[in-house]
Structures are given as C-alpha cells and as structure tokens.
TrEMBL record:
<protein>
    <recommendedName>
        <fullName>Protein BPS1</fullName>
    </recommendedName>
</protein>
<dbReference type="Pfam" id="PF05633">
    <property type="entry name" value="ROH1-like"/>
</dbReference>
<dbReference type="GO" id="GO:0016020">
    <property type="term" value="C:membrane"/>
</dbReference>
<comment type="similarity">
    <text>Belongs to the ROH1 family.</text>
</comment>
<dbReference type="InterPro" id="IPR008511">
    <property type="entry name" value="ROH1-like"/>
</dbReference>
<keyword id="KW-0812">Transmembrane</keyword>
<keyword id="KW-0472">Membrane</keyword>
<keyword id="KW-1133">Transmembrane helix</keyword>
Amino acid sequence: MSRPQDAQPARSFFPFGNPFRVIAPKGSHMSSQLLALLKAFEARLAERLSKLMFKSKEEILSLSWMTSAMESLRDTYNDIRTLISDLELPVNDWNDKWIDIYLDISRNVLDICNAFSSEFSRLNTCNLSLKYALHKFDGASSKLFVRAFSSLDDWKHHVHSKNPRIEKCSTILDNLMGSLDLPKVKNSAKGKVLMQAMYGVKVQTVFVCSVFDAAFSGSPKKLIDLDVADMYSWAPAFSRLQSLINEEIRARFSNGKFSVLVELEVVDAVVKEFNPSIQRSAETINNESLLKTIEELSKAEEKLSQGLDLLAKGVDGFFKVVLVSRDDLLSAPTSAKSVKNCAFGSNANQKAIL
C-alpha cells in the first residue's frame, strides 16, 4: 500500500501469526451444505464491503458514509446470528473458554461504542456555541454581534480539544486484534465454518472502528492496515476499500486539515471566514458579504448536526445488537439445547454474535 512519506508505520495485524491455521484442523470434512452456507455468508460480506466504496473522494469520511459503515457492521453481526442458527450447533461445542472469549470481545466492542457516543456528545455540545452565535447574528445591534463572535471563538477552542475516551480506543482495538488468535476447534466442520465467518466479522469490526478512531482523534497514527489472506473470497473487496479509505485519510492529514470529517471541516472553513477585527456597526450588520457567510454557517451547522444525530443512532443500534447477544449468552441455561434457542435467542431481528 502506498503512503505519504511522513506516514507513521502501521500496526501489525498478525502479532501471533495467521490465526486461521490454528482453527482449521485436519480431517474436518466440509459438506456441500456447509460450504454453501459459508460461501453465502462471505458473498454477503463482500457485497457490503463493496457498497462502502465511494463514488467520489468527497464522500470519504462524510457522516453519511460513516453511518453506512456502522449499519454495514451491524448487518454483518446479524448475518452471523443467522449462520449460527443454520449451523444448529449444540451447546457442548461452546465450552467455557469460547464463551469467555466472546464476552471479552463484546466488552471491548461495547467500550468502543461508548467512547464514540461520548464524542458525539462532545461535538453536539460544541455545536451549541454555533447555534448561539447564529441566534445572536439574527439581532440588529452591535452588542449582539460581539456576543456572536465570542461564541464562535468558544466553538474554535472546544472543537479542537481532545476527548480522553477516544484517546483510549487504540488500546481497546489492540485487544480486539489479539482476539484473532482463536483457540483450536475440535474435529468439527461446523466449527471451521463458524470460525472462518467470525474472522470476517472481526476484520470488519477492527477496520471500521480504527477509521472512526482516526477521524475522531484527528490522528492518522490510529489507522490499522489489515493484511487479509487471498483465501477469503471477500478479501479483494476489503483490500480495495481499506486501501482507498486509509490512503485518503492520511493524505488529508498530511495536507494540514484539523479533521477529516467532511461536515466538521466545512463548518471550520466557514467560521474562519469571519473576520474577528470587523467593525460591529450598523453598516457591518447589513453587510451583504457578512450576511452570506452567516447563511453558509447556518446551513453547514444544520448539516453537521443532522449527520451527527444519524451517526449516533447508528452506533446506538449497533451497541444494542452486541449488548442483547451478550445478555442472552450470560442468561442462557447450560443445557443441551441448541445455540439457536439458548445462547443467541430466537429473535431474528435482535440477536447477533461477534
């Protein structure tokens, strides 16, 4: 993958070697039915990844694209729930070690979702300063204009501050990457299918979350370059998507942008058009150029607020999918019922597993 010269080295994706070699025991024959289930799952994953390819560079890291990425991840989690139902795995195939691994992974995913939610709250709080400024600009006195410009200064100060919870996401993502080194599956073709499918889910999770982490932290160092083997049918779609997204993010940061979030960068650019030394007089208030800039800020702020709201709902929906599956696993009786009726529930619209 080509990178700008000043780009930081990417973190290694396989610190413990290729995990799939650990989970593919010899002698586990995959029937045509099992192979069809796996191929169908991987085909849907490849299709979701392909749909995240942008038509223009302006779409990269727009809040709309980020919402689509989160919804794609949620759909993949729901898809693996369907796969587990179709496999009809018995409970005794899921020993305590596997359950502990899932609980640890899901805890990390929930922590990341909470960190993202805290960033939405921070940005929405910053936007209150923009809304206040726009409200004061509607006035007809120089005193109100002074307050409006003061609010714009407050926005610039707070929007460039760091979120401590986002700063911790890299550590959480490192924990998720460590979970790729999965335990051995007993001589089970069904187990092999499930592990190969879960590997795809985890790759998509780490990729999407690392992109969000880089965008919210304002640092290309947060990006993770994942090296996926060609043996997976969805690998080409994933590699193309990852290469284009990561390279564009690094290019934007190298060009001096304070944020790669499109809507946030637009607001910042409009705010910079306001001259803080402008005379706050009656003539200034009716200045055509200033009124046009105020109108542009109003539109940019509205688009940013709406985008953040949709993305926040997308993350919340994903959070609930992971939380419900975790609760089901913890409350499931340890009997010989199938996973479909025990660990992962029977509600097709709500249950999922990492």
